[in-house]
Amino acid sequence: MFRSGHVITVVALASWFMTASTGPAHAETVTSFWSFQPPRNLAVPAVRDAAWPRSPIDRFILAELEDANIAPVADADRRSLLRRASFALTGLPPSPAEMDRFVQDTSPLAFTNVVDRLLAAPQFGERWGRHWLDIARFAESSGGGRSLIFQNAWRYRDYVIDAFNRDKPYDKFLTEQIAGDLLPYDTPAQRHEQLIATGFLAVGAKNLDHQDKELLRMDVVDEQIDTLGQAVLGMTVGCARCHEHKFDPIPTTDYYALAGILRSTKTLLPGNVSGFVERPLYRDAAHRRAVEQHQKVIKPIETQLGQAKSKLKRVRTELAALQDPTQSAGAVDDDAVEAQRDKVIAAEKLVKRVEAEHKALEDKAPEPPRLAIGVRDEEEPADYHVCIRGNIRDPGAKVARGALSAASTGEPCAVADGGSGRRELAAWLTRCDNPLTARVIVNRVWHHLFGTGLVRTIDNFGKMGEPPSHPELLDWLAVRFVEQGWSIKTLIRELMLSRVYQLSTTHDGRAHAVDPENRLGWRMNRHRLEAEAIRDAILTVSGRLDLRCGGKTIRRGTESEFEYTFSTTAPYRRGVYTPIFRNAPHGFFAVFDFADTNLVTGRRNTSTLPTQALYLMNSDFVMDEARFAADLLLARRGLNNDQRLDRAYRLTLGRAPTEAERTLAVRFLDDSPGTDAWAGLFQSLFSCVDFRYVN
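Structure (tokenized):
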């Protein structure tokens, strides 16, 4: 229970949130806050130890370390470095043969060759596409009260994976996801790709059976604004729906300027349970004409058939009434009944005739187009008004469609008449002078490679977020990223070939005393693998991982009744292809901190819980894969037990066992020889910390 003083404090705080003036604070933020200033193309700093850096990135880091009077730790050993790089770029462990080749390669380009090989692997897109799917709050169901399956959401997932594999420039990647349906195209394939990309706006959580359809529409818009704000700009724009943002320079007019763009975009279809927009993917112009002509011809027949069936139902009902003495004053009029029977027979003949016509047309119908979940412009795009305190029933002044005023360092985002404004919004987001877009994605890439971002609040570059640990380096990387064509692969390659990336995770007492959180980058951060990487690594060791790329992995069904099934071998596909349903989380993924699909998730939680250890000890999946791994190992001829033990450790941990580990393992295997013992050993290795963590 609150004490009286606490109640006063809470009331006062609530009052401040409702009444505090934001104008002066906003003005000051616009002119001075770091994230709203254009990135600066700074000179690379000089350092005292000129022999240590291998790249400009190293010089930025070393300059800060030298100012703090601490030194970086030693480089990582080769086995740790290859395992680190392999998981970072593909989400899979290196094979023993790959490890041997790298360890024995004395070329100065050995690691460069590894990075280039991994960047070119199809598994790269699956790994880095999953990072983006976390941000895009991707799932294959709507969530909400009556959760519906997004049958074609897998096309968006495959689009993302393919975009990373082809190194689609990030500015183009964003533009297609926001306004792909509005872009010009040269081929049907390009058109399909751009339509599929707009799934970004459509795959969020939705309560489709909400009966206040206008409120539902605004809630979908709010979810899209929140996603765009955090995912692309690192801004909590959604806070300005009801009042001016209390910390960042985002007035309600900016929120409703964006709302006008997204309200001019159709995401839902009307109905008691709302539907979602699916765009047809025609093979070519001829296919489209054939489908449209077929629809033009068959629609009147379908209307006629519906009318004929309605008439048949009516005359049958009338006949039943005439034959029922209780409804005909106690006496049945045989002549009236006979006349009504004639009407029924005539109605039945009409239905059969129209059904035959309908079937004949259907037999000649062209192949229907494939479908992709996405969006389209409303027929009458328009500006929207401010909703007072966020209440859609209390409209205020109208606001011209546009973007965030504080981040508009050049020309504002002006929306032309006749369109939603999504194309102009995409152009504004990807302008070279936009202060946020490049910084945010560069920081995301740094986070995934180093375990923490230069800005640790990955999705929040506002006042409530953390400032960057190395602001000059972040600016330098952002400017360089744009100059190099918004290439994600080029950025990753440059970061991984830096000496900073190749440092060990060794603890240094003196450096730790000065910088206990390693914000200055004096060592590499040790971090746990994500749920999918743990699962995929287990399947890799057991030999059962299916590396087929792309495709649909669910059949029709409803999430709530669990009527979905995987295709024949889908249980062993990579984790990125595992169907993700909002109301039915995957057990393994939930245990190991999978992203919340209702939110933009730039950084997943990393928990250490008893349930994780218990799962690895008792899961049928883990025990089955441990047995398959044992069978696979024992099937290799010409190996003695000592060699098998070495291989088991190298497959799972990327290294040979220590002497202490070898002694314990040999004792265990001697006590209970056979497949069961080797399966138990593999399960122990799957459960150990070194399997789940990367140095």
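Strands lie at 265-266, 268-269, 275-276, 278-281, 370-373, 376-377, 384-387, 395-399, 527-528, 693-694. The radius of gyration is 31 Å.
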